[in-house]
Amino acid sequence: MDTTRLDVFAFDPLTLQWVQAELTVAMDWYTRCITGLRLNPVSTKSVDVSAVLYQCFRPRPAGPHWPRHAVWPEHGIPRTVLIDTARTDGPGHASPPVVPETLVVDHGKVYVSEHLTSVCRRMGISIQPARLRTGRDKGPVERFFRTLRESLLEVLPGYKGPDIHSRGEHPEDEAFFFLDELEAIIHEWTATVYHCRPHAGLVDPGVPGLRMSPAQMFEHGIARAGYIEVPRDPDLAFEFLSTKWRTIQHYGVEIGRRRYGGPGLPSVGIRSPYDGPGKNVWPFQVDPDDITRIYFRDPTTRTWHTLTWEHAPAARMPLSEDALVFARKLAAAKYRYPDDRLAVADLLERWNLGLGTTLAERRMALRLSREQAALDLPDTGKPEAASLPSVRRALGDEPEPPASEKPVPAAETGDDDETDVDDFYADALEDV
Questions:
Q1: Are 79 and 227 in contact (CB under 8 A)?
Q2: Does an H or E element contain 364, and which?
Q3: Against a cut of 0.90, is the pTM above it?
Q4: d(C-alpha 266, C-alpha 59), whole Å
Q5: Helix, strand, or coil here: 38?
Q6: Contact between residue 245 and residue 253 where contact means Cβ atoms under 8 Å apart
Q7: Whose CA is closest to 115, among 290, 301, 240?
Q8: Which of 39, 31, 37, 362 is nearest to 177 (CA)?
Q9: Residue 271 burial (CB < 10 Å; 0-12/13-18/19+)?
Q10: Residues 73, 54: contact at Cβ < 8 Å?
Q11: What is the mean pLDDT of residues 12-25?
Q12: What whole-number distance in Å separates Cα of residue 100 and Cα of residue 230?
């Protein structure tokens, strides 16, 4: 895995100005296939690296208009079932699913963080740091970045080049693509061009002179190594969140001066079965991009529960941890006795008026405005009443039945129904 700053400017939908972007990729060393990819505004955080690692287990769906040779077949079918992969239904995947055994990373802050280390520990992945100032330890990834720049980024508007000598005049003014659009373009180019192009470094010792593409090398590896056992847990995304160890109090759980509560939380007197860093502490999964809720797994039933922040209704939207820290700083300078609800309300009002023009605020707002979240977290379950069809239609979760299926009410009969309404009002305006 590696991260690089792209040589092309993206477009900020909030301030309508250019913004720099960083690309994080995960590459299968044997096949040179790109198994994970994510584009981030300004800088990359540890949750973004974990999201790219999660794409190795759960690839993104392919685009609706991608060619057939660029779409990878669905996975997760038991090995005892023999099927024709060409006849399987579904949109397919944008990259092949793999189960990493060793993660080769550099000494960047996001790659040696506690977040990524704990995720690799839970998933049984070893971490192998690259040697300092030794680029060949991650040579294939560096070569991918160069191929991406020379084959794709150079023809996009807003290209700024790898150095000052390659930069044109005012490339910032040519920024055209939003972050999500630029990420979709890179995804499609990787699937349709890079995975299907023969590479000089992909060879088979038994067939000299044969050059294979990453897609062909993946099929070659499957034929030699066999079946890839990918975890089938539908709640696997929770394992890639940041873990916080806290004790349970009478008011709930407190993380970062925020109190959470909800159903499924054990009682105060129950002792924790986990051997955590403290005494009688429980693990809670936290998403730094949405701190309005945290997730807890019942050790007995192995089911996940959602705990809600006490000031979540005031936010009215996902709120990142950086945005809350910034809001607290603004509220402390403005009010004598600030609280989180007042701080969040002032921050949203500030952004609504267009006053958030600093670089830090632009980055926070950009991360919150992303159409695609870092991790697609599954629903932890709804109450039984919310699953009724009538309640779901009222809440907007289920579409209305077509007009042909709706019952037609019986026509009312009575003395007034025999009168023609049109004839009754025909001479109403004659005097006028």
A1: yes
A2: helix 359-368
A3: no
A4: 34
A5: strand
A6: no
A7: 240
A8: 39
A9: exposed
A10: no
A11: 81
A12: 10
